[in-house]
C-alpha cells in the first residue's frame, strides 16, 4: 500500500509548492485523455507517470512493458514488484528489435530503431483495444540531449506528460518520494544495448553476456554500474569513483568470471560511472543509418 508523505518534509517549501503545481498540471493533462497506454520501463519517470495515470484514469490506464533480450533480467522482476506496489492494469509484450538489421548494426541512432519497434507494437495494441493515447516518461531534462528515441516517439504521436507539465528529473524524484514510490531514488538505467560501443554488432547472445556480467556485480552490492563492451573482447567496468576501492578486492574472482563469459580483457574505468559515456567517442560526428534521430543511458 503506497503511503503519501508531505513534500515539505523532503524538499524546501518553495520547491514543494512548485512540484505540487506541476503535479496539478500533470493531473489536468491526463484526466481528459480517458484511456491511455503508459510505456512502463520500471524507472522512476515512468513509475511516477503510471501512478498518476492510475489515479486519474483508473481502468482507462494500461501500463505496458516491452520484453526482449535488451531488457536486463532483474529489471523484469523489478517491474513486477512496481506493478504490485502501484496496482492497475499491466501487460508484458515481446518486442523483436534485435531482428531488425538496422538495430543490430548498432549505429549511433540505434535507439531510434528500438523505439520505433516499441511504438509500432504499442500503437497496434492501442488501436486494437481502443486507447487513443500513448505516453512516455520523458521530462524536461531529456530535452537537448542526444536521444534519437524521442524522434521515434514523435513520429508515432507519443506524448510526454511529465515534460508537458514542466517536470525536471529532480522534480520527478521528489514527487515520486512524496507519493511513496519505492523507486524514487532508483539510479537511471538504460537497455543492455547501450553498453556496446557504436558499430559493434548486437545479438541476443552478446546481450545475455552483458546481462550476466552486470548481474555478478549487482549480486555483490553494486547498484549504479555499467559493463561496457569497448570491442568484441574487452569489458570496461564503470562504478561510481567512490566505490572503486570496494571493487578491487574482488579483482581475481571478477576477472576469472568475466573470462568465462568470453571476455579476453577486463578493465576498470578510473573516471568512474557516468551515464551515456559511449557518446563521448562520437566527438560531434554521428555514425547513423539513414533514419532520423546514441545511447540514452
Give your account of this protein's structure.
- The protein has 297 residues and is of the alpha/beta class.
- The chain folds into 2 domains: 19-179, HUPs (Rossmann fold, 3-Layer(aba) Sandwich); 192-283, 2-Layer Sandwich (Alpha-Beta Plaits), CATH 3.30.70.
- 41% of the residues lie in helices and 12% in strands.
- The protein contains 11 helices and 7 strands.
- Strands 3-2-1-4 form a 4-stranded parallel beta sheet, sandwiched between helices. Strands 5-6-7 form a 3-stranded mixed beta sheet, with helices on one face.
- Helix 2 crosses helix 8.
- The relative contact order is 0.15.
- Residues 290-297 have low confidence and may be disordered.
List keywords for this structure.
297 residues; 7 strands; disordered C terminus; Rossmann fold; 11 helices; globular; alpha/beta; Alpha-Beta Plaits; 41% helix; four-stranded parallel beta sheet
Summarize the structure.
This protein is of the alpha/beta class.
Query: Could you give the order of strands across the largest sheet?
Result: 3-2-1-4
Topology, number of strands:
7
Structural class: alpha/beta
Topology as a string of helices (H) and strands (E)? HEHEHEHHEHHHHEEHHE
CATH architecture of the largest domain: 3-Layer(aba) Sandwich
| Highest-level CATH class of the largest domain | Alpha Beta
Helix content: 40-55%
Largest beta-sheet characterization: 4 strands, parallel
Layout of helices and strands, plus pairs?
Elements: H1 13-30, E1 36-39, H2 44-57, E2 61-67, H3 73-86, E3 89-94, H4 101-104, H5 110-129, E4 133-135, H6 148-155, H7 161-164, H8 169-178, H9 204-218, E5 226-231, E6 234-238, H10 244-247, H11 251-260, E7 265-268
